[in-house]
Amino acid sequence: MRPFRDLSIRNKLTTIIMGTAGLVLLLASLGFIVIQVLAARRAMVQELSALADVIGTNTAAALSFNDPAAAGQTLAALGSKPSIVAGFVLTNTGQVFAKYVRPGVAADAALTAGDGGGGAGGHRVDVGQALKGGYHHWDRHLNLVRAITLDGEPIGIIYLQSSFHELTTNIRNFLITIGVIGAALLSVAFGLSYRLQRIISMPIMQLLGTMKRVSAEQDYSLRAEKRSADELGVLIEGFNEMLAQVQVRDQ
């Protein structure tokens, strides 16, 4: 704390104002980022759930008539969604009925669906939970599992795996926006601190100059200029009264 106490009033004001503004900006930014991430995750799950419902509806007939080729053609439409890494249609026992894996996807992302063990795309599907209503799982990708129903009865499982490319892009753009706004706010705070330090320090420096002249010239008729009615103005007024009393005493 001693280095701070030894700073000039101007530097103290700048440090306090900039530090306070920076801390408030940091906390607000963190809050906005958390809210943005949570909202983006919810939106991602909702979008993937809607897509799973559409695919489930379109593949229900293929499952009923045991037509993997038709289900595969439906899954091939996932190629129009850049964020989709893989999609699988599974039977009620977790066996692969049809699958789609985006070309060029790394082997550790989505290479094959599981065999009799009920795994798919590197994620082990919980068949029981999937048939009860589905679930989603966050890992290196968003893995979403939903039941495919026909007349209210589950006849299969749809499994979708989505990358975080869109999510990370949105977050990056949000961070850039926060950075630009933060820089602008800090610039405004610095300008205000510079203006404030001039308002506060100039009367003090003028008072100091008057004190030095009085000390050097022994001229008690000098007076410091009072510019305001605040605490500094009261201090200057008291100093001038002291000079007036000394002047009267000497006379």
What's the SSE blueprint?
Blueprint: H1 2-5, H2 9-64, H3 68-76, E1 84-90, E2 96-101, E3 119-120, E4 123-124, H4 127-132, E5 135-138, E6 142-150, E7 153-162, H5 165-217, H6 231-250
Antiparallel strand pairs: 1-2, 1-7, 3-4, 5-6, 6-7
Radius of gyration: 36 Å
Assign the structural class, choosing from mainly alpha, mainly beta, alpha/beta, alpha+beta, or little secondary structure. Answer: alpha+beta
- H/E series, N to C? HHHEEEEHEEEHH
DSSP strand (E) fraction? 15-25%
Strand order of the largest sheet: 2-1-7-6-5
Could you list the spans in which at least 5 consecutive residues all have pLDDT below 50? 107-117
Count of β-strands: 7
Number of helices: 6
**Terminal Cα span:** 47 Å
Q: Judging from the principal axes of the Cα atoms, what is the shape?
A: rod-shaped
**Overall residue-averaged pLDDT value:** 81
Biggest sheet details: 5 strands, antiparallel
Helix content: 55-70%
Describe this protein's structure.
- The chain is rod-shaped, with a radius of gyration of 36 Å.
- The chain has 251 residues and is an alpha+beta fold.
- Helix 2 runs antiparallel to helix 5.
- A hairpin with a 2-residue loop joins strand 3 and strand 4.
- 59% of the residues lie in helices and 16% in strands.
Features:
251 residues; alpha+beta; 5-stranded antiparallel β-sheet
In short:
This protein has 251 residues and is α+β, with helices and mostly antiparallel strands. It is built from six helices and seven strands; from the N terminus they run H-H-H-E-E-E-E-H-E-E-E-H-H. The radius of gyration is 36 Å and the shape is rod-shaped.
